[in-house]
Amino acid sequence: MRRALILVLLLGGVRLVLPLGSGAEAPYALLTLGFLMLAAYTVAEIASTVKLPRVVGYLIAGIVFGPALANIVTVEASTTLAPVTSLAISLIAFLAGAELRWSEVRDRIGAIGKILFAELTLTFALLLGLLLALRPMLPFAGSGWSETFVFSLLFAAMAIVHSPAVTLAILSETGARGSLARTVLGTVLLSDIVVVVVFSATLSLAQALTPPAGFGAQITAGAVAWELLGAVVVGAALGAAVSLYLRFVHKELFLFALLVTFLGTEVARMLNVEVLLTLLTAGFVMENVSQRESGLALRHAMERAAAPVFVVFFALAGASMHFEEFLSLWPLVIPIVIVRAAGIRLGSAVGGWWAGMPRRESRNVWTGLVSQAGVAIGLATVVAEVYPARGAALRSLFLAVIAVNELIGPILFKRGLAAAGEIPGTPSESASAPAPAEAI
């Protein structure tokens, strides 16, 4: 009751104050930023009382106070605050890489690879089959089967992507560091690389079969190779430089953490390499090259810097959800969400069985693979830019699917971690199950 009262007072106060900054873009955005942080924190506290993940609270705050409802966070303000989203994605990528040690990757790479192969292949095939079966209802369907097949391929290639942001946020909130948590994190991170390759190849095939206007923007194999391999090289160099700083300077780590993320993002963009993979590689190299104590200190500094940024990131993600599109497309969205979740669940179970994983772990892996967020939106935007007409329709359907997965994914993952007994203070489902692995 007290938190609800605080939220009402915040809303009343911002209704009085925001008109004062309506004439200038920057002050209005700053007022919006302050309100959004306070409101998101408050809604997250309310969500926690009903056993929902805090991430869901942040998303709900964005929905309620975004353009869809209260319109406190306007479209213009969201655009002005876009750098906060970029910073959050960079921090997420670096922290995710820093969560992995080589010994952990080496021990799990076989199991992760089998889960990924089974889950991505099955989910892709099921989604492609569903879209072709629903051809008369598709907003991006062409006049012939070939065009519908091409755009269905693009949609399926995007829909198999997962969300490192949500995964890391849930692990940070729950403190889970067990076997399931490590497997899901490794799977999600590796899947980003695989999905970027699959999507780039699919887009190149689509451009060859269904040339868009201005076909000169074709994505070549060389460009894709440089975007990925170049990101590994640039990220490794950045990670090595961070390690040298930690070894010989080791001061002002909080400011240095912000500098690393900004510098890494800008360097990656200047060199036309994949930003997420660059920061992910940098974090991985830093963690495995630096002394353990130094790497841990930088990670803690980054987590302090990231806490408020993550709140705004997920709240802005909620504000960007287009529920009017969901309402008009729900006959398509619901089957796609269900079939995708079924493909993930069945595929990860098959992959877990193939890898010989414990049953308690293999039957809960899928819960951490449902969420979608920033990377998925980025892929949809690329398609909309290449194909302005049908790509825009495809993007609208895909964003509606993301909106659902972004809300249900965190809830499923938190329940999966609880079922596996990996949330501190939560008993496992089986008293005879092995103890969670030691945190890295």
Explained architecture:
With 440 residues, the protein is mostly helical. The protein is built from 17 helices and no strands. Helices cover 76% and strands 0% of the residues. The chain has helices at 2-17, 25-49, 54-65, 75-80, 82-98, 102-133, 145-159, 164-174, 179-209, 221-248, 253-270, 275-289, 292-319, 323-355, 359-362, 374-386, 390-419.
Helix content: over 70%
Output the CATH class name of the largest domain. Mainly Alpha
Write down how many β-strands occur, each being a DSSP E stretch of 2 or more residues. Answer: 0
Structural class: mainly alpha
SSE run: HHHHHHHHHHHHHHHHH
Mean residue pLDDT:
81
Output the CATH topology of the largest domain: Na+/H+ antiporter like fold
User: Which CATH architecture of the largest domain would you pick?
Assistant: Up-down Bundle
Main sheet specs: none
> How much of the sequence is in beta strands?
under 5%
